[in-house]
Amino acid sequence: MQLENALWTEKYRPGDFSEIKGQKEIVKRVKAFVEQKNLPHLLFTGPAGVGKTSLSLVIAKKLFKDLWRQNFLELNASDERGIDIVRNKVKDFARTRAIGDVPFKIIYLDECDALTREAQQALRRTMENYTQTCRFILSANYSSKIIEPIQSRCVVFRFKHLEKKDILGIIDQIAEDEGLKIDDKAKEALYDISEGDCRKLENILQSSAAIEKHITEDLIHSMASVAKPKEVREVLELALANKFIDARNKLLSLMLSYGLAGIDVIKQIQKEILELNIDNKSKMILIEKCGEIEFRMTEGSDEFVQLEALLSQFTLVNA
User: Fold this and answer.
1) At 74, is the secondary structure helix, strand, or coil?
2) pLDDT digits (tens, 9 = 90+) for 210-260
3) CA-CA-CA-CA torsion for 305, 308, 313, 317, nearest 10 degrees?
4) pLDDT by residue (tens digit) across 162-185?
5) Secondary structure of the chain: what % helix, strand, coil (to 5)?
6) If you ran DSSP here, which 8-state letter would residue 97 be given?
7) What ranges make up the beta strands (E) of the chain?
8) What are the φ/ψ torsions at residue 152 (nearest 5 degrees)?
9) What is the pTM of this model?
């Protein structure tokens, strides 16, 4: 098995439109553009790990065949986010003609919502000036951070999280290719932890496979540094039973044993609130408290003090 994350991710990166999972309508429309060799500027938006970069590479491979590397430029805008990247690298590549029978090259700008507004304004002019020789595929997590003039020049595709059946299909494929045995509970844990992010799924699964060929639920939670849902629920139930000190001690033990950060704990607690045997009004109050505590943590408050404060709210619910 290849242990380097980059190599494993490349190994399972789709090479054909049929291999892109969970984005059926988007793939259908993009495939039509490619078959006509008449590609507009594209803007891919959506969460991480759902196929934006993979689809861009499939477009390049299908259009340019063996010459795709010479006609495809991939840049990560979060690394090089200033106006110079547009003035230099992008323009230098865009002003030269494509090699082969396709009349344009492709520039793929990943995470372009990280570009400064000045860089986006420069990119807007570049997209206009080099339409004859170049097409742009822009990728962003948040379309609202892309200026309106750029959005109006692109066909926008909004990607969604992968569904459970797609995630389980990917897990089964990797298990077969790599000779792994993955328990059903481990598959469920992978789906819950990955939250529809295929890249995250592959990284967790690869890390686990490097340790053991038989993948169990315990191994997945250990490698992902995530507590088991039932353990988090036990902490909350202790707090609801007015056993604050016991709940506090168990939470501290969980954080130390799994190496959890406060933000990670808050997200797991918020999920488990919905499973508690309390009335809906109490659930709403506690979820509101989770949001308040998370905000305080992101502003720099001590995470354990804030988690203790949250547990105290669970105790007061049944007081």
Assistant:
1) strand
2) 888 899 888 888 888 788 888 899 999 999 888 999 999 999 888 888 778
3) -170
4) 888 888 888 898 888 888 899 998
5) 65, 10, 30
6) P
7) 42-45, 72-76, 105-110, 134-140, 155-158, 181-182, 214-215
8) -70, -20
9) 0.77
